[in-house]
Design goal:
alpha+beta, nine-stranded antiparallel β-sheet, 4 helices, Reg_factor_effector_dom_sf
Length: 163
Amino acid sequence: MQKMSKTPEATIVMVPAFRAVSSGYQEMGSLFMDGGFFQKVKPFELPLNNIMFNSADFLLYSDGKFNWLWSVQDSVTVKDVNSYEIIDFPGGLYATATTIDSDMESRDAVIERMKAWLETSGFAIDDSRNHQQMSQMIYCLDEIKEELGYEQLQIYLPIKKRI
């Protein structure tokens, strides 16, 4: 069997467009504080749509702040989400790789390897989007976490075809 000569550091995916309730960009701690987004919206009580990897949410990151998006069904209204904005996320092309949730050293190393790989590929970081990266917890099943010893975090970097 012939070995691959070069192992990619990323997988290229097309994230589909979806309708979502948006927290708006804010500090991470604000999302979980009393009266914060997670408490007011209660996303697990809403009719959700899974987007990728059996998950209905993405956490967008830009300039030190976070915007949590939860993909909701068409029946959900602004009233259902405590006046938080409902948006149409456009989706798009992303480079993605898996890291260890809550391990910043691992996350940073994975992102650097992804960026280095992108420099040698036909793709480039897409700076025109309103976020520098996004992430989601994938397959948060006890049997997976127990075997791995950690929860998996999927990192997404917005990309475009290199010109």
